[in-house]
């Protein structure tokens, strides 16, 4: 058993060595078991009301990677050599009318779906009045925010396994959406691209962290 002190040190070590990797070793592949662990850390991520508004596409095909590369300046340095390249999709129009919500409540959570129930009404009220998720864009961004939590868990799990990663927002969303839709890999009525991540083993030194001090970002009230 690790002592509390050892645990604290390990957590900080893991976050110190997670860095946005720019150069991956093309020869080194992530093992199946390690990858399963990383995907499981995504699957177990928290989500608003437990509705899991996401899907994860693992892009193995080198031609597809090339085509994505053309639309993703932020992935240019890593997409070729990354062992695993993930495109995270966020669900669109996640309101009570979306069949995914019924699926989550009935099939995943084993409860009855009743749009008039207190739970559903609370959800509806929360969306309309608390967060004012009243446009398609706001609803997509709300789902997209949640995919970043899963992304973070994946990168942290990877860092625990000494696997490197780079999160990627540098892409033309409209173009990647259209590309995935044209090829039948994503239904554009249901999903949009949220974030991409390269995973693999670094072929460079870990970049030391530059960060604001705790005093700058933290206040006790
Ligand atoms: C949401 C998000 C989007 C990012 N997009 C890119 C990207 O497109 N390409 C890239 O090389 N790095 C990208 N990064 C990496 C950041 O530049 C990096 O995390 C930041 O500079 C801090 O450095 P560190 O992660 O090495 O500690 C992104 C990071 C985040 C969180």
Q: Could you provide a short overview of the structure?
A:
Keywords: Flavoprotein, FMN, NAD, NADP, Oxidoreductase. By secondary structure, the protein is an alpha+beta fold.
Q: What is this structure's SSE topology?
A:
Blueprint: H1 4-17, H2 32-43, E1 54-58, H3 62-71, E2 84-91, H4 99-108, H5 118-130, H6 136-160, E3 164-168, H7 173-182, E4 191-200, H8 214-217
Antiparallel strand pairs: 1-2, 2-4, 3-4
The chain binds flavin mononucleotide (FMN).
Task: Write the CATH fold name.
Answer: NADH Oxidase
**Poorly predicted segments:** none
Number of helices: 8
For the largest beta-sheet, the strand count, sense and barrel status come to: 4 strands, antiparallel
The CATH C-level name is: Alpha Beta
Q: Give the helix/strand class.
A: alpha+beta
Q: How far apart are the termini?
A: 36 Å
Bound molecules: flavin mononucleotide
Q: Strands of the biggest beta sheet: in what spatial order?
A: 1-2-4-3
How many distinct domains? Answer: 1
Summed over residues and divided by their number, the pLDDT gives a mean of 98
Number of strands: 4
Protein name: Oxygen-insensitive NAD(P)H nitroreductase / Dihydropteridine reductase
EC number: 1.5.1.34
GO molecular function: 6,7-dihydropteridine reductase activity; oxidoreductase activity, acting on other nitrogenous compounds as donors, with NAD or NADP as acceptor
Cofactor: FMN
